[in-house]
TrEMBL record:
This is Efflux transporter outer membrane subunit. GO terms for cellular component: plasma membrane. It comes from the Bacteria. Residues 1-21 form the signal peptide. The keyword Transmembrane applies. The keyword Signal applies.
Length: 477
């Protein structure tokens, strides 16, 4: 009768656990939107510059050498490598959780039970006398194999391993995205360095022109054609231009050191060729189709992997409502005297235990984990959609920027050409006393500013080609 009662109670408890497990809370759901526009500007050409390797896209040998150095020496990239290693170890850890764990242990202890306790009173009722095999206090020696295994009925542990594997892949995409950004940052800084070198050369050339003009003004002052005021104004113009070169030199130093930092090395000269910066032709960029962003951009792939992992996390959290089945076993030898350990089968111990456990009352903690996992999943959906939207807008902005900068550069070139010619004209008119010295000064100043503006526009053009390459997902492959 007692056995039947125990059996019935066990069956009732198991049924109650299963019925309780089937009642999981309802969740707020959201479907991810993976649709993107069909094209950027109406073109269906699938040729995509973002799929080119950076060695093909960037042709300057000095620039490619810098990028090569950065891909091995950059600290941020090396940090992400360790993050990948951490994620990989997480996968191994999760994989081990749903496999049986077997260990070997040995131990020794001694225990003296108090007389007026249950163990002590029980021993007192025995007929074991002093001098027999059982000593007092009682030692205990044991050597055994033990095993534990949680039977992964609901795939909770396997799903946790899948989520960890997805996050490992996500960390790899994170490194690719970091690589893309570092390649783009080095290229932009390199072009900035070339533009500063060019500006410095223009400035030094302009200082020579202004010094010649100053000599002419001094000669005219000696001939009483102009006053000392004109000489001082020309002198001030020369000094002002000379002072500008130190600001450019400081920017060159800072830009070089920025590149050195990205390369993971201490400040040193950055090898480069600045002679042809003004004649550089921006790379012709082909944007391809927006759908290609989903496979080209590492940050989008990273967000997609994080989203998939977050969905699996919800399944892991749901499994906490279900009963879990655990198995444990022991096999070894045990005795109160080491000599008796070899006496088999008397010293043999063996145990096999199975337990079924699940929540019945007060599931608040499990519900909270479940709701939190679902909220993180919805967060991951919004994060993915935002990443895709941001990528599309970046490409659109840079494509527009490239076209507008080309028009700006064409007009700036005409402006520089006109002002360069006006310098010669103003000098000739001033020499023949047909123009005031202020016209010469203003013409020289405007010509210098227009040259600087032209170089700045060229820099923006080169940076736009770098930025659109990064926006298309180039630089990591």
């Amino acid at each position: 009768m007692t056995k039947q009662l125990i059996y019935k109670c066990t069956v009732v408890a198991a049924v109650a656990l299963f019925v309780s497990a089937c009642k999981t809370p309802a969740l707020l759901t959201k479907e991810v939107n993976k649709e993107v526009p069909a094209s950027y500007n109406g073109s269906l050409d699938s040729t995509n510059s973002g799929q080119l390797s950076w060695r093909t896209y960037f042709t300057d040998p000095y620039l490619t050498a810098l990028i090569d150095t950065a891909l091995t020496g950059n600290q941020e990239l090396n940090i992400t490598l360790q993050e990948i290693a951490i994620s990989q170890n997480e996968v191994l850890e999760r994989a081990g959780e749903y496999r049986p764990f077997v260990g070997l242990r040995g131990g020794a202890s001694v225990e003296k039970a108090a007389r007026y306790t249950h163990p002590g009173s029980t021993e007192a009722t025995t007929d074991i006398k002093p001098g027999l095999e059982t000593p007092d206090p009682l030692p205990d020696f044991v050597v055994d194999l033990y095993a534990r295994w949680e039977v992964d009925i609901w795939h909770k542990l396997r799903n946790a391993k899948k989520a960890a594997a997805l996050r490992y892949l996500s960390s790899r995409e994170g490194r690719n995205f970091t690589t893309t950004n570092i390649v783009a940052e080095i290229a932009s800084s390199y072009y900035e360095l070339l533009s500063l070198d060019t500006q410095l050369a223009i400035l030094q050339n302009n200082i020579g022109i202004q010094n010649n003009a100053l000599k002419i003004v001094r000669m005219q002052k000696e001939a009483a054609k102009v006053t000392e005021l004109a000489v001082q104004r020309f002198q001030a113009q020369v000094l002002n231009t000379q002072s500008l070169q130190y600001g450019i030199q400081q920017r060159i130093t800072e830009t070089e050191n920025k590149i050195n930092f990205l390369l993971g090395r201490y400040p040193q000269h950055v090898a480069r060729s600045s002679d042809n910066f003004e004649t550089l032709v921006p790379e012709v960029v082909r944007a391809g189709l927006p759908i290609q962003l989903l496979s080209n951009r590492p940050d989008i792939r990273q967000a997609e992997l994080e989203l998939t992992a977050a969905k699996i996390d919800v399944e892991v959290a749901r499994a906490n409502f279900y009963p879990s089945l655990g198995l444990s076993a022991d096999l070894g030898i045990r005795a109160f005297n080491p000599v008796y350990l070899a006496r088999l089968p008397e010293s043999l111990l063996a145990a096999l235990i199975g337990d079924l456990a699940g929540p019945l009352v007060n599931k608040n903690a499990i519900k909270a984990q479940y709701y939190s996992a679902n909220a993180r999943q919805i967060q991951a959906i919004y994060s993915y959609e935002r990443t895709v939207l941001n990528a599309y807008i970046e490409v659109i902005n840079q494509l527009s920027n490239i076209g507008n900068l080309q028009n700006t550069y064409d007009l700036k070139s005409q402006e520089v050409q006109a002002l360069t010619q006006s310098i010669t004209i103003s000098n000739n008119l001033f020499s023949s006393a047909r123009a005031d010295y202020m016209e010469v000064l203003l013409t020289q100043r405007d010509a210098l500013e227009s040259r600087f503006d032209l170089i700045e526009t060229k820099l923006q053009q080169m940076n736009a080609t770098v930025n659109v390459y990064r926006a298309l997902g180039g630089g990591w492959n």
